[in-house]
Structure formats: structure tokens, C-alpha cells
Amino acid sequence: MTASLRVILHVDMDAFFAQAEVLAAPRLRGKPLVIGGRPVDRGVVASASYEARIYGVRSGMPLGEARKRCPEAVFLPCHPPRYLDLSARLLKSLLRFSPLVEMASIDEAFLDVTGIAGGLDGGRRLALEIQRDIRDRLGLGCSVGIGNNKLVAKMASPLGKPGGVTVLDLQQYVRTYAGRPVGELYGVGPATVRALSHFGVVTIGDLSRAPAAEMLRRFGIWGRLLRDAARGEDSSPVVPHHATPAPKSLGHEFTLPRDTSDRREIGRLLLGLSDEVGRDLRTEGWLGATAHLKVRSSDFTTRSRRRRLENPTDSTQVVFRTVALLFDALSVHDEIRMLGVSVSGLMRPEGWRPAELFDDGRLDRLDRAIDRLRAVYGARSLRRASLLADRREARIR
């Protein structure tokens, strides 16, 4: 079957992080939400609800700027375990409709439904079923783009946001996007926009008509692929989730609201980061062989250390103890701006467990019991006592 006859769906969750926060706290429904931290923090917006977007709040915007644009917004920190859990459940839902599901990111996926839908109109009907299933099973809304290849499906999905289903055949794609700025083409960033403008390419239509030899000369193979994309041409396959390359590492970083040299605070942050890394390992079914620590001081000096573990592990405590030793070995005397914890050398357990786990497996069982409780009641439902800033946080609310 030729690529032009494929039927590809692009499922894109609507304001995924914001929806996840509403699921955890329904009282937030309908309010402008900004996900990423407090407005006094130095971070940027990770996501915003549509109620906040009407004020111009966008991903990547400094949190302080978001506060200026939408003073009444509710600012919330990111909760990665919550989002990862929902993403895993999303994948399970999509696999009910096609075995060919490629998770493009935590909140979007491609499905090849060529042999199932029987055409673009069938793809539309299937998309509506998928939307209902995700709403019923996960309580989330999504938009779906449908096309004869991944590029067109990806470009179709934002046209119906939020909650829409948009079908574009090749002719519709060309009519819709030919007059739009080249920066709207998937994969084209500001630097490429500037480079293209130097020889008169301003719109996607301009790019589609650019001489192929000139694009190849100026940009190499990437130039040819850009020109093909502007014309709606894309032969890349949907790579099933089970066939995607294994990640090289898993990790988390945290930029502190204020630089600190407080060893107790640094210890709490290292434990919190190790907790997230450990949960990622267990959720995604990996063991890590090497622990990594990254430390950035207030003068932006960055130092990294790593240590191979005695046994590959998914234990929060093993990761924490290792990075804590690495931090002590660094003998850092400056104030700290950022900390990062990660593990590499990932491998599948395949039923194997190290022969000498601490406390004959009790810590392993504890980690998994915590994971199960958090999966049901939310990422903040159960917290390690040492992560509490003071005793007042331990009160039942």
C-alpha cells in the first residue's frame, strides 16, 4: 500500500498538564491555570489552561510575565509522576484502536489506522470514538488531526483545538497553509525562519516552490526535507511504542527559587529528585546502572559527577544515597542555583533482581507500595517526612 493512501491520526491532548491538575483538584475547573511554579520563581510556563491562554499566557513564557498578563491565574508546580501516569494510561487507551501507536511526547501520539479506517472519512469516525474513549476512561479532552501522512496529521490537529477533529487531504493542506508564515511549519524554528528569509522564503507556499537544488545547497538534506514538508510530503512511518529506541538515561533537574548553601535544604532537594527518578524507573520498567549528579552554583559554574552502582537498581534510596555521597565529595562551598539527578545504563529487569537488596527487599516493596498509593490518590498524597519543610506541612488537611 503506498504512502499516499495511508490514514494517520495525530492525537494531541488539550492543555494536558492543566487538565491533569483539574483531575487531581476538581475545584480548579474553569479557572485560569499556569503550570510551572510560582510567579516569583525563575522558571517558565510549562503549560496553561485555555482560560489563561486568552490573556496571552503561553508555554515558555517567564512566570513573572504570566502573572502580569493574568493576575488572577492560579499558579501550580509541575507534577511529573501524575503526568507520566496519565500518559501511560493514554497509551493503553490508544492501543485499543490500533497496534501502531507512536508516542511522540508525553501528551501526543500518532496512530496508523490505514487498514482499520479504510480512508480519511473512516479516520474521522475513528477519531470521534477515540475522543469518547479518552474522555470516558481518563476524563481528558483531546484534539485529533487526520491526514495521509504524519506531517499533515500533525499540522491538522491544532486547527480544531480544543476538542476538535480536523481532516486534511493534500489539497486541503496546501490551501490551508500555503499563505501562512513559514514558522508555522512543523520543525521550523526562529533560526530557520531567519535563514529562509534571506533568500525570500517567507510563507510555507514560498518554501514549497523553492528550487530543490538551492535548498539542498544551502541546508543539506534538511533543506530537502523542509521543502517536502511544505508540499505536504512525508513518508516517515509510525514507529510503534514497543519499537522505539530505549532511552539512554532518566533524570530530573530543579532550579531553586533562591540560591542556597543550606545543607538540609540541599539534602531535601536531592531526596525529592531521587524520588522522582526512582518512580520513573519503576513506572517505565527500567533498572539504572550509574547515578549522576549535576550541580550549578550561583555563578553558573556547573559540575557533574557519576558513580557506577554495585547493582543496577530502581530504588529511590539507593539513588539518593549515591548522589548524596557524590555531593559530599564535590565539597561545594558556593551557593547552589540548580541540582540535577539522573541514572544511565538502563536495562530491563526481565525477572532478575540483585542478590543483596537492602533489608531483604523491604525498601523495594516500600517503593512500590508508595507508587501504587500515589497512582490512585495523586503524586502528593504520600510524601517522605524528610521532604517536609517544617512540621506544619504534616498536618492532615
Describe what this molecule looks like in 3D.
This protein is α+β, with helices and mostly antiparallel strands. Helix content is about 40%, strand content about 20%. The strands form three sheets. Strands 5-6-1-7-8 form a five-stranded mixed beta sheet, with helices on both faces. A four-stranded antiparallel beta sheet has the order 9-12-10-11, with helices on one face. A hairpin with a 2-residue loop joins β5 (about 100-105) and β6. α4 packs parallel to α13, α11 crosses α12 (about 220-230) and α13 runs antiparallel to α14 (about 315-330).
Biggest sheet overview: 5 strands, mixed
Oligomer: single chain
The pLDDT mean sits at: 86
Structural class: alpha+beta
Low-confidence stretches: 351-361, 390-397
Biggest β-sheet: strands ordered side by side in the sheet:
5-6-1-7-8
Order of helices and strands: EHEEHHEHEEHHEHEHHHHHEHEEHEH
Number of helices: 15
Strand count: 12
Query: What share of residues is helical?
Result: 25-40%
State the separation between the terminal residues, measured CA to CA: 59 Å
- Proportion of residues in extended strands: 15-25%
Global shape: globular
Radius of gyration: 23 Å
List keywords for this structure.
alpha+beta; 397 residues; single chain; four-stranded antiparallel β-sheet; five-stranded mixed β-sheet
List the helices and strands and how they pair.
Layout: E1 8-13, H1 16-24, E2 33-35, E3 47-48, H2 50-53, H3 63-69, E4 74-76, H4 80-94, E5 101-105, E6 108-112, H5 114-117, H6 120-138, E7 142-147, H7 150-156, E8 165-167, H8 170-177, H9 190-197, H10 204-209, H11 212-219, H12 221-230, E9 249-260, H13 263-284, E10 288-297, E11 302-313, H14 316-330, E12 336-344, H15 362-377
Parallel strand pairs: 2-4, 7-8
Antiparallel strand pairs: 1-6, 1-7, 2-3, 5-6, 9-12, 10-11, 10-12
